[in-house]
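Example for tutorial group B:
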C-alpha cells in the first residue's frame, strides 16, 4: 500500500528532497511525542483551568523543566518516574539540587 502526502515548503530544492522532507516530518513528530503528548496526557495540560495572563506559559515552562530533569536523570517513562517520586518526595527534591 502506498501513502501519499502533499505539502508546501519554503525550502530551496537542494534541501527539499523526499528524504529531507521525510526527516523533517519525523523530527517534528519526535518533538510532539516526547514533549507535547506527555504534557497533555501525563500532566493534563489541556484540562488545566489556568487560562489567563502569563500563568499558562509559566506552567508550560515548569512542565518542560520537570520533563527535562527526569530525562536528564535517565528516566524514559515519565509516568513511572512521577509515580515513583510521588511516593518518595525527598528524592524528587534531590533531583534539582
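The residue assignment follows.
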Amino acid at each position: 500500500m502506498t501513502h501519499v502526502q502533499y505539502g508546501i515548503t519554503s525550502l530551496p530544492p537542494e534541501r527539499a528532497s523526499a528524504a529531507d522532507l521525510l526527516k523533517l516530518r519525523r523530527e517534528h513528530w519526535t518533538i510532539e511525542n516526547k514533549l507535547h503528548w506527555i504534557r497533555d496526557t501525563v500532566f493534563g495540560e489541556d484540562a488545566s483551568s489556568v487560562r489567563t495572563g502569563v500563568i499558562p506559559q509559566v506552567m508550560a515552562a515548569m512542565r518542560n523543566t520537570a520533563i527535562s530533569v527526569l530525562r536528564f536523570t535517565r528516566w524514559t517513562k515519565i509516568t513511572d518516574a512521577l509515580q515513583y517520586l510521588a511516593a518518595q518526595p525527598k528524592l524528587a527534591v534531590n533531583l534539582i539540587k
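The chain has one domain: 13-95. Compare this with the pattern of hydrophobic and polar residues in the output above.
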